Amino acid sequence: MCSIIGYTGKFTAASVLVESLKKMEYRGYDSVGIATLDSNNILIRKGVGKVREVDDSLQLYKMPGQVGIGHTRWATHGGISKSNAHPHTDCDNNVVVVHNGIIDNYQQLKDNLIKQGHIFQSQTDSEVIAHLIETYLKKFDIKQAIIETCKQIHGTYAFVAIFKSGLVAGARLDEPLIIGIGNNGNFISSDVLGFLEYTDKAIFLDNYDIVILDDKNINLFDFNGNAISRPITQVAWELGDIDKGKYAHYTIKEIHEQKNSIPMAFQINRSSLEKTVDIISSSKNIFITGSGTSYHSALLAKYLFYKFAKIRTEIIMSSEFEYVSGALDENSLLIAISQSGETADVLNSVKIAKQHKAKILSIVNISTSSLCRLSDHYVSINSGPEIGVAATKSFTAQLAVIYSIIDNFCTNNRPLDMSTSMFSNILNEILTDTSYLEKIAEDLKSVRDIYILGTSYHYPIALEGALKIKELAYIHAEGIAAGEIKHGPLALIEPGTIVIVLNPEDETYYNVLNSIHQMKSRGAKIIGISNKNNDLYDYFIRLPLVNKYLYPIIEIIPIQILSYYLAIKNNANPDYPRNLAKSVTVK
Ligand code: F6R
After folding, report:
1. Which end of the chain is more exposed for a tag (fewer CB within 10 A), N or C?
2. Atom of ligand 1 nearest to the CA of 389
3. Does a structural domain hold residue 184?
4. Which residues does the annotation mark as catalytic?
5. β-bridge mates for residue 8, sequence order
6. What distance in angstroms lies between residue 293's CA and the mean position of ligand 1's atoms?
């Protein structure tokens, strides 16, 4: 949720930190702060706003010193204010801390520290870390002070502290923390994007790892103070990919990147696919979980598993998983779907499933993520970095991977024709001219509600389309199973209500037409998304002809584009929807 970056090396730390924070801003973007160490003094500047704004007003990049930490915040405890922005310092400004996560027992710790005479400057849970370290430094060295602090705090955390000695220390529990080993200094960050410009050599810390580093040495310990070692991983992604290129926003760039990312996702490594099929075939009970967009992928997987593989799966939203996990056992398989591989709700579901001895198979984008490391096997969707907070290309890539897996269960008669060249042409057709969608957005920009209807495997797409409209354009939108409208939602329809229908020609076509008639006769304005026009549609968004079972992968794209234009026309920043963050690492 928040982003953390620390640096110690030959460069001026602040300018390195500012650029790193800009790259990780997707993790949280309500306030920003930097602390540097300059001639035995710790300097702190922080403020409310995005990195560029705070840097412009406070000249963060000019702060002196070659050791520093930086942070962008996504508020949990304490409002969005300068005093709640990180870094937080102890009473004497000897240690300064940035934190990502939630300290569950902070109030009790804070009360005790206040009784001991500590003075707090913020309402955050995070500030207790600085004061606890201060207390332990009176008795112990830095290493032991960090260990004692970690033993006191309950909850989830990745935190990094700098000290007047020039040392940088960090620790993690259920929040990501990664070390970057550079030729001109070392980094410690929430995401490899924080240091990829300088080095591709990374150490992924595990839970209960503590690190103390300077510009040359990196020392890792467990909570008992024993030295430990972790492998150095070479991180593969190219920096060029996180540029906006010719596009105004990452979101529209990533929507267009689907021309390549969907065909790429279909090309799963053969042996990985075979292993996946083996794991699924040998499991008695299959559960699938995910959050938000990834949950919608899971829902679609349910329809496809039933239809093409005759396999029953149970789909559980990750945030609900702990309440319905009783049926898991050693014959169960949990398939966890996550773009980031760091979503707290998903990781929590995986932990619970592991406690029940279930196997874990994951479908992820970030193959260095915590989820991959917790899984018995993972399949990569290979989408490259997705910076826009709203998931777009990762969703269609998840679907492509799910289709590829399910295709392997259709051994006698393969109904899913997924030739890559065919897909490239189809995607080109959809993405080449989007002016009609821009025009629809102009007509719709002031509406209060939008409903999206779909039946069978179009229903998860209706839910996903509604989520895109909500988060990008701040318009209330609801996905509804088309057959359900007569059981309640019809009461909301009045003249002019906007209803988008997903209605390509397949076995759902006539049922959905019935629902459209019911809407239309009550005055709804219908936007049809289909390969075939119909007089019932007030607007018609044509889909190219494709194997009828593959429509879910392409029919979401016009809704993604429409949501993008609706955001622009409502002056919302599509890359950074208000109140959201890309990587939701808190429960
Ligand atoms: C919506 C969106 C979120 C994520 C959700 C899970 O556009 O991006 O709903 O899908 O937070 O994230 P991952 O897939 O990283 O686990």
Report:
1. C
2. 8
3. yes
4. 2, 582
5. 67, 186
6. 5
